[in-house]
Design goal:
The complex is a heterodimer of chains A (146) and B (515).
Chain A: H1 8-30, E1 32-36, E2 39-42, H2 43-46, H3 55-68, H4 74-85, H5 96-111, E3 115-118, E4 121-124, H6 125-139
Antiparallel strand pairs in A: 1-2, 3-4
Helix pairs in contact in A: 3-6
Chain B: E1 2-4, E2 12-21, H1 25-32, E3 41-44, H2 53-57, E4 62-65, E5 89-90, H3 95-98, H4 113-117, H5 120-127, E6 156-163, H6 171-180, E7 185-189, E8 192-198, E9 205-211, E10 217-227, H7 230-240, E11 265-272, H8 275-279, E12 290-297, H9 299-305, E13 310-313, H10 331-346, E14 366-373, E15 382-389, E16 395-401, H11 404-424, E17 429-432, E18 446-447, E19 479-481, H12 496-513
Parallel strand pairs in B: 1-7, 2-3, 2-10, 3-7, 4-16, 10-19
Antiparallel strand pairs in B: 5-6, 6-12, 8-9, 9-10, 11-14, 11-17, 11-18, 12-13, 13-14, 15-16
Helix pairs in contact in B: 1-6, 1-12, 5-12
The chains are: A mainly alpha (146), B alpha/beta (515).
C-alpha cells in the first residue's frame, strides 16, 4: 500500500519508526543479546553451548533452575564454567572438541551426582547453569547492559 | 493315560513309583522325563482340563499386611496349572543371582549357577522359547549386549528376557496328548491332595490322601513323592500334614512357609529422550526371539550397596513406549518438550553444522518405566494356616505379606542408578517416582507379578530352609519339592524357565534314586 502524499508529518514519523525498528533488528541479528554477570553475552556466544534454534527452550529451562536456586550468582557460575570447560573457541558449535568438553562435563555431573531437580526431572548441574545464564540474558532488554 | 478321580471307586488305593502332586509346568516337565521308562508315575491335578469355579474356590485365602490379589486369581487349578495365564515371558538367572549375599540373614542358593544353567536350553525348548543369540562371552543362555562402559558408580547392565512370538505355551493343551499316550504316566484329574501321611517319626511319607469335591477319597502309595503345586500350596500341604509332626511335615525348624517372595512391579520413573536412543543399543537382533531388554544392577553395585536384584523394563525393540504426553496436558508437557529439544545436541544428534543428523531422534517421548524387584528373604513374610476351612475341610492359608525395608532401599537405588546411568550416557533424563526417595515411608503403589517364591527354600542348613540341594525335604527321605517355592533367591526374572530347569534337574536325580 502506498502512503498518502498529502500528509507529510505522519509519513516522516512512520519512516523514523521503521528505521529504528530496522536498526533494532540489525542489533539483535548482529549479536548483542544481554550482558550477564559482568560478561557481555552474545547470542552468538550462547550457541557455544546450545543450538540457536533451541535458545528459547533453554531459557525456559533456565528459568526453572533460577526459580529453584536462591542467590544464583552469575559471576561465580561464569568462573566455574570457565574452569570446567576451558577456553571457548570462536567457531562455537562447529568445534567438536568444545562440544565434547561440554558433553563430558554433563556426563561427569551425573557420574558424580552433581544434579539438580527441575519439575521432578534430574538434570546435570552444568546444563542447568548454562540454561540459567541463557534465561538471565533473555530477561534483559536486548542491547542493554547488566 | 488321563483319568478322573471322580470316576474311580471311592476309597481307591493307587500305587506308583513316583507321585507328582500338581499338573503345572513343574509337574508336567518332570513327568515327561518318565513317559517312556519302566517307572510308574502318577500326576495328580486338583482341577480338570478346563477351569472350574469350584476348584478355584479352593484357592481362597486371607492376605494380611500389604494389599494383594484375591488369592483365587493368581493361581489356576487346572491341568497345565498357572501356564494358562502365563504371559510367556522367560528369563534366566544370572551369576549375580547365585552369588553369596553375606549381608542377608538367610543364605542364597547353595548350588552353583551351572547346576541350573546347564538345563536352561532344554527348559527353553519345553517352554517353547528360542535360543538366545550367543553373546561375545560365549554364554548361550544369557545374552547380554552391554552398552554401558565400566566406570560408573551406579553401573547398570542390559539384560534380556524373551517372549514367545507365537504366544505363551499352555502346558496343559500342549503336552496333554503326549502324557495321555504314555503307558508309564497316569494323570489323575480332580484329585485334591489333602494330607501327606508320615510314618511315626515323620521321616518317611507312607501315603497321600486325595479327595474330590464330590466326597470321594483315595490314597496313594509311592516310593517317591514330589510336591509341585506352587509357592502357596506347597507349604500349605506340608503344614496341613501335621498328624505326626504337629507343626507340619518337614517343619521341625519352623521354616515351612517363611520367606515368601513376590516380584513387586513398581513405577520407578518417567523418562524422556530415551526410547529412540536406547533403540540403538537394544535394537532388534536378526533371527532372535522377541527380546525384552531390562536394565539391571551390576554385581558390583549389588554387592557394594547390599541390594536385591531389579530389572527396569524397557520397551521391546520395535514396540511403542507408553507415551505419557498423549495423556498429560499440563505445564510439564511443555517443560519436557523444551528440555527434550536440548538433548539432541548433547546426544550428538546434531552435527557440526548444527543440522539434525539423518535418522536422528524424530520426537522425544515421555515414557513410564517399571521395575520388577526381587524381595529379600524375610521370615516374617510367610504363609500359615488360618482357622477358616475350604470345601474339603482343610484350613485355608493366610499370607502375611511384607515388602520390607530392603525392598524400599533397592527401589530407591534403582531410581538413583537410572538417573545417573541415563544421564552419564546422554540417553535421556529421568524423573524418579516420589516413592523412590530415600526415607519415603508412605504407601508404595505396587502390583504383583503373580510369582510365588521361596516358601520351601533350598538350603544346606535345615534351620534356614526346607529342602536340601537335591530339593528333598530335610528330614523326610522320600519327599521332594519342585517349583519356585524352593528358590532361596529369585532374581527379578519371570521364574517359569528356572522352574522347568530345576524340574529337569530333579528328574535326573529321581531317575538315579528310583532304579
Amino acid at each position: 500500500m502506498t502512503a498518502p502524499t498529502t500528509r507529510a508529518g505522519p509519513t516522516r514519523r512512520r519512516l523514523l519508526a521503521a528505521a529504528l525498528a530496522a536498526a533494532g533488528g540489525v542489533a539483535v541479528a548482529g549479536g548483542w543479546w544481554a550482558a550477564v554477570g559482568g560478561r557481555r553475552f552474545r547470542r552468538r556466544e550462547a550457541r557455544f553451548w546450545i543450538d540457536e534454534r533451541f535458545l528459547d527452550s533453554a531459557a525456559r529451562l533456565g528459568e526453572e533452575h533460577l526459580a529453584a536456586t536462591a542467590g544464583f550468582d552469575p559471576e561465580a557460575v561464569w568462573r566455574a564454567l570457565d574452569e570446567l570447560l576451558g577456553p571457548w573457541p570462536a567457531t562455537g558449535l562447529g568445534d567438536e572438541r568444545f562440544r565434547a568438553r561440554v558433553r563430558a562435563a554433563v556426563e561427569s555431573d551425573f557420574a558424580a551426582e552433581a544434579t539438580v531437580d527441575l519439575r521432578g526431572y534430574r538434570f546435570s548441574l552444568t546444563e542447568a547453569r548454562l540454561c540459567a545464564l541463557v534465561a538471565l540474558a533473555a530477561r534483559r532488554p536486548r542491547g542493554g547492559a547488566a | 493315560m488321563i483319568l478322573d478321580l471322580r470316576e474311580l471307586a471311592d476309597q481307591s488305593h493307587l500305587r506308583a513309583d513316583l507321585c507328582i502332586i500338581g499338573g503345572g509346568p513343574a509337574g508336567i516337565a518332570l513327568a515327561r522325563r518318565f513317559t517312556a521308562g519302566p517307572r510308574q508315575v502318577l500326576v495328580l491335578e486338583s482341577g480338570g482340563l478346563e477351569l472350574e469355579a469350584d476348584a478355584q474356590e479352593l484357592n481362597r485365602g486371607e492376605v494380611r499386611g500389604e494389599r494383594y490379589f484375591d488369592l483365587r486369581l493368581p493361581r489356576q487349578r487346572v491341568f497345565g496349572g498357572t501356564s494358562v495365564h502365563w504371559t510367556g515371558e522367560m528369563g534366566v538367572l544370572g551369576e549375580v543371582d547365585f552369588a553369596a549375599r553375606p549381608w542377608q540373614a538367610y543364605p542364597g542358593w547353595p548350588i552353583a549357577r551351572e547346576e541350573v544353567a546347564s538345563r536352561y536350553a532344554e527348559a527353553l525348548e519345553i517352554c517353547g522359547g528360542s535360543a538366545w543369540p550367543r553373546n561375545p562371552a560365549g554364554d548361550p543362555a544369557l545374552f547380554r549386549r552391554d552398552p554401558m562402559p565400566p566406570g560408573g558408580a551406579h553401573r547398570l547392565e542390559l539384560r534380556y528376557r524373551q517372549r514367545r512370538a507365537a504366544g505363551p505355551r499352555r502346558f496343559g493343551t500342549h503336552y496333554r496328548d503326549e502324557l495321555a499316550a504314555s503307558r508309564s504316566v497316569r494323570v489323575v484329574l480332580h484329585a485334591n491332595a489333602t494330607e501327606l501321611v508320615a510314618e511315626p517319626g515323620g521321616g518317611h511319607v507312607r501315603e497321600l490322601v486325595v479327595r474330590t469335591l464330590g466326597g470321594r477319597r483315595a490314597t496313594v502309595a509311592a516310593r517317591a513323592f514330589v510336591l509341585a503345586c506352587g509357592g502357596l500350596e506347597n507349604p500349605r500341604l506340608l503344614l496341613l500334614s501335621n498328624r505326626v509332626e504337629p507343626r507340619g511335615l518337614g517343619n521341625r525348624h519352623d521354616q515351612v512357609g517363611r520367606c515368601f517372595q513376590e516380584h513387586p512391579v513398581v513405577e520407578v520413573a518417567q523418562v524422556f529422550g530415551f526410547a529412540e536412543s536406547l533403540a540403538r543399543v537394544a535394537g532388534p537382533i536378526a533371527g532372535s526371539p522377541v527380546l525384552l531388554p531390562d536394565l539391571c544392577p551390576s554385581a558390583e553395585l549389588v554387592t557394594r550397596e547390599r541390594l536385591q536384584q531389579f530389572g527396569i523394563e524397557l520397551a521391546p525393540a520395535g514396540e511403542p513406549v507408553w507415551d505419557l504426553d498423549r495423556r498429560q496436558r499440563d505445564g510439564t508437557r511443555r517443560f519436557v518438550a523444551d528440555a527434550a529439544r536440548l538433548l539432541p545436541w548433547l546426544t550428538n544428534e546434531i552435527d557440526e553444522s548444527g543440522s539434525r543428523r539423518p535418522g536422528g531422534l524424530p520426537a522425544m517421548k515421555r515414557a513410564r518405566l517399571d521395575s520388577m524387584q526381587e524381595m529379600a528373604p524375610d521370615p516374617a513374610c510367610r504363609v500359615t494356616l488360618g482357622e477358616e476351612r475350604d470345601a474339603l475341610g482343610c484350613r485355608r492359608l493366610v499370607l502375611d505379606l511384607r515388602l520390607g525395608a530392603e525392598f524400599r532401599r533397592t527401589l530407591a537405588a534403582a531410581a538413583r542408578a537410572l538417573v545417573h546411568e541415563l544421564g552419564r550416557f546422554s540417553i535421556g533424563r529421568v524423573a524418579p517416582s516420589a516413592w523412590t526417595a530415600p526415607g519415603f515411608d508412605g504407601e508404595i503403589p505396587w502390583r504383583g507379578a503373580a510369582h510365588h517364591l521361596g516358601t520351601t527354600r533350598m538350603s544346606d542348613d535345615p534351620a534356614r530352609g526346607v529342602v536340601d540341594r537335591d530339593c528333598r525335604v530335610h528330614g523326610v527321605d522320600n519327599l521332594w519339592i519342585a517349583g519356585s517355592s524352593v528358590f532361596p533367591a529369585s532374581g527379578y526374572v519371570n521364574p517359569t524357565l528356572t522352574i522347568v530347569a530345576l524340574a529337569l534337574r530333579l528328574a535326573e536325580h529321581l531317575e538315579a534314586r528310583l532304579p
